Amino acid sequence: MRTAVVVFPGTNCERDVVYALGVLGARADLVWHRETDLSSFAGVILPGGFAHGDYLRTGAIARFSPVMDSVKAMADAGQPVLGICNGFQVLCEAGLLPGALVANRDLSFICRPVHLRVESTDSILTRSATVGDVLEIPLNSYEGNFVVPEADREALHTVLRYSDAQGGVDDDANPNGSFHNIAGVANRRGNVAGVMPHPERAVEDLLGSTDGRILLESYLASLAPIHV
Amino acid sequence: MSEPIHRQLGMTDGEYDAVVGILEREPRPAELAMYSVMWSEHCSYKSSRAWLGRFPTEAPWVVVGPGENAGVVDLGDGWLAAFRIESHNHPSFVEPYQGAATGVGGILRDIFTMGARPIAVWDPIRFGSLDDPKNRYLFSGVVSGIAGYGNAVGVPTLGGEVEFDDVYAKNPLVNVMALGLLRREQLVLSAASGVGNIAVLLGAATGRDGIGGASILASASFDEASAEKRPSVQVGDPFEEKKLIEACLELYDRGLVVGIQDLGAAGISCATSESAANGGMGMDVDLDRVHVREADMTPGEILMSESQERMLAIVTPEDLDVVLALAAKWEIDASAIGTVTAGPQLKVMHRGELVAELPAASLSDDAPLYHRPVAVPEYIETAWATEVELDLRDVPNVLLQLLDDPAIGDASWIYEQYDHQLFLNTVIGPGHDGSLLRIKGTDKGLAVSTDGNGRRCYLEPRAGSARLVYEAALNVAVTGAKPLAMVDNLNFGNPEKPGVMWQFTESVEGMSEACEALGIPVVGGNVSFYNETDGVDIFPTPVVGLLGLADPMPQSPPRLDRAEDGMDLWLVGDDERDGDLAGSAVARVLGAPHVGRPASPDPAAARSAVETALALAHVAPVLHDVGRGGLAVAVAEICIRSGVGCDLMEREASSWFEESPHRLLVATAKEDGPPAASAKRIGTFTGTNIDFGTHGSVSVADAASTWRQAIPRRLH
Amino acid sequence: MKIQVEITRRPGLRDPEGATAARALRDLGFTSVSDVHFGRSIVVEVDGDDRDQALTDVEDMCRKLLANPVLEDFTVEVLD
Amino acid sequence: MKIQVEITRRPGLRDPEGATAARALRDLGFTSVSDVHFGRSIVVEVDGDDRDQALTDVEDMCRKLLANPVLEDFTVEVLD
Ligand SMILES: Nc1ncnc2c1ncn2[C@@H]1O[C@H](COP(=O)(O)OP(=O)(O)O)[C@@H](O)[C@H]1O
Ligand SMILES: [Mg+2]
């Protein structure tokens, strides 16, 4: 049960994702964005980076890559589709997730660990966690500020929110101005999820935190057909 | 009344005559342009070359020493590290974002030219005081430029340095160091070989960027007229560079290149002549084949353009199609622009016309070499005859003033804008002494520290420069890494002034002596002269970048945030010296006259400090070198980061701030006793105050908020 | 032919660049500034000389790629 | 009063964003696209109703903050 890790020109976290899944004992392969056949994979991850330089709008050009038809097909088939950071932006641009990500409130890039509170476990990103869990995971983005038009707010399926170390969710715990402190969302069905911070950067004690494991383990546990 | 063209290009009459001598005729315009840039200070090192030979450069682990694009050292088990440092000072003053961004792009090309994947960047940077809005603009622009380019190109920035002093107000210093990792069999060099092999230009289209930029920006002093040079700003494209990195690494993996050279100053003319000359060959170049951004470019413009993100690969004719297909896969442009010849001539054609024909090697080998006059500058005598007088009795208050200094305060405003975790190697990132990266799949770690101190070097260039090497060595040693090799960036004023040349020669001598004392070879560097504005030179500001190897890497390397209530605090190293307030941070922060003679470092003490650190790095929870601001700041840094107070033993007030070299702070559990034979207990971690006994105390909370706000409060 | 595209953020959605610029301008002493909105303006050069065709094409480019319908509105016009 | 600012990259300077967008548009089938240039358009809302004063102020804002004189040119006009 292999995972495809999609590489767009400008993607840079692809090897980190493969490595982190390897630490958890899972296998993943890099797939160039011009591939069109993902049928041999049980799930797909769109990793972080700067696809197409983030020019125009982050994720805008990437959503037209040939591989995206297969990604959509997997999403429709209920297979796990996970976007991390830039991958989250691509999924929003592609219409697989609601909303969009714009420049951080303070207009500067933010690279530091943040706390996330688990809001829902009905997703491939959080199914192994417990609502209320607080995870410490590195954030690393300039356009991480989640916005969503009025019309889509009601149906929003929030899975992770920025919080303080105790799980308190307020403005002080919001690093980038995201609507409702949202750090991760999923589609209704829960099989397509996007998360702004980088779970793959938190799987080893040596590098400071292992809190990302539960998110990647949730993804891995979803590789079997999911039942909703 | 117009000046002869060679002078407008910054060439002396004597240099012009030398060109005529080589060619045995008057040069054509394009040829003159090529010589003017290749013989500029920036490219030819004509004022410094005579002295750089002083550096020790050899050691059994040196694979490639100075002269190539980057130095390369052997890490064992088939792994090599490539690293290099560069300055982008003048371009960053003209346009801070693009100047810094293209500085990052350029240094990365030096690394992947060697066959290495770039894995980390460091950014030692210097500006005028943040009280002036112009300096705030330059500082924040440079930091966003480094972030913008480094993050997008996908190479983490793991640390650096920052200083503020008005001597840098109109001449900020932006140095960037990069490190790459490669397997031994991946090493590639620049030399072109094989008659009939093809030179392929890869990457961005050639436009009118920064034409003559190298000679104009790096070799001439700045004055108000520099505003007119602004259109020559180069715009960087990290996305293009990212594709170029991946394409080149795949070319190497598949054994498709014979040699490769990045395009920097003087663009195509430099890359073609250097790769031909390094291989003892010649080259025929056809400018009509170059993919250009604007249709009507002159041959001189195409040859001299400094458009970023371009590489020149030498490939065999059989492989050409595969190489072009691979470039297409990575979505970069590629064109075959030249053919390797038996030489020695470099011949350049444009629209069927010969625009240049000259001996390829003459651009580098025949460059002028100057033995500029050297004399002790006038300020030295007075400075050395004067003692530093400071009232340091109010220890807590002086400490708070130091923590509020933006060069000592928390640098996280800077480094949180940088991705410093990508590649999952960062064991110790910015905010500690040296950075530490693991090498996956091995027990090894690589440590790096960059260090400079212009104020001390101004007062004593030899001792000051030697200390940089010792400080960097200690900074890497506290992570458990043994100093392995060094690069240096020599930022100086106008070399035509004998006093500046004295600062320069003394500095090279000081660094060389220290490198010899620790057995550290210098494997590369960069010289940036003419850092002066309106006739005033910057402080002599050499910056060293030191690489260390931890083998094995400590399981749990010391960190500043691991002190706990009840632990003892120990000081290792000579504590009884005089003369260590001259050029110190406390003298600057309290506004004392910039005088005194900094005492010389002690090679034996330096060696012993490094050895002690290496041993303790495997056992001590906290191990910190004593640097800027002396003991008081070093203790406060541990307390702030660990969130615990410290009861300190009585000592003379000034000794809290003196910057004596070769000293370490160690925290250990009470039952562990002294960490080293020479260690002296100076305190115990406890409570919520940093308590200086009869000198008073300051709460950790106050110290922390002052320290955290030092940069942000000046920007907002 | 050059076609000018103006892209603006939809009303009601946050514009961090605009908000920051407004604050910075007031700090600089331009106290009369009440609000600032950031948009993008893009010039697309297309071959051919059928203006209507060009406009239709560029509108299509906007819907597909240049603008994000979730966030942005756009207008296009032919430049002379 | 609303003042429209148009900021364009100075001629001759590289525009990587425009070049990338042009490539993407051609990939999408808009093969007639020969070039794309990116600029910024900013609307500044100012209090008061002296049009000339407002224009002078906004020009000043451009020079001081909104545009980067090294890389960009700008024009301002009053929107109705
Ligand atoms: N310009 C910068 N970029 C990134 N990190 C920086 C910068 N300036 C300082 N830092 C980080 O802040 C920490 C403290 O810097 P410094 O006081 O120069 O260290 P030291 O005195 O130990 O050499 C270091 O870890 C350094 O990497
Ligand atoms: Mg240190």
List keywords for this structure.
heterotetramer; A: 228 residues; alpha/beta; Rossmann fold; two-stranded antiparallel sheet; 5 helices; B: 716 residues; alpha+beta; seven-stranded mixed sheet; 25 helices; 28 strands; 34% helix; 23% strand; globular; binds adenosine-5'-diphosphate; binds magnesium ion
Report on the structure:
Chain A has helices at 14-23, 67-76, 86-93, 150-153, 213-221, and strands spanning 3-7, 28-32, 43-46, 81-84, 100-102, 110-118, 134-141, 145-147, 157-163, 182-186, 192-195. Chain A is of the alpha/beta class and 228 residues long. In chain A, strand 1, helix 1 and strand 2 form a beta-alpha-beta unit. The radius of gyration of chain A is 16 Å and the shape is globular. The model of chain A has no long low-confidence stretch (mean pLDDT 95). In chain B, the strands form five sheets. Chain B has a seven-stranded mixed β-sheet. Chain B is an alpha+beta fold. In chain B, helix 7 packs parallel to helix 8 and helix 10 packs across helix 13. Chain C has a single domain, classed as Phosphoribosylformylglycinamidine synthase subunit PurS (Mth169, Chain: A). The mean pLDDT of chain C is 92. Classes of the chains: A alpha/beta (228), B alpha+beta (716), C alpha+beta (80). The complex binds adenosine-5'-diphosphate (ADP) and magnesium ion. Adenosine-5'-diphosphate (ADP) is lined by residues 123, 125, 159-162, 411, 414-415, 430-433, 451, 475, 627-628 of chain B. Adenosine-5'-diphosphate binds next to strand 4, strand 5 and helix 17 of chain B.
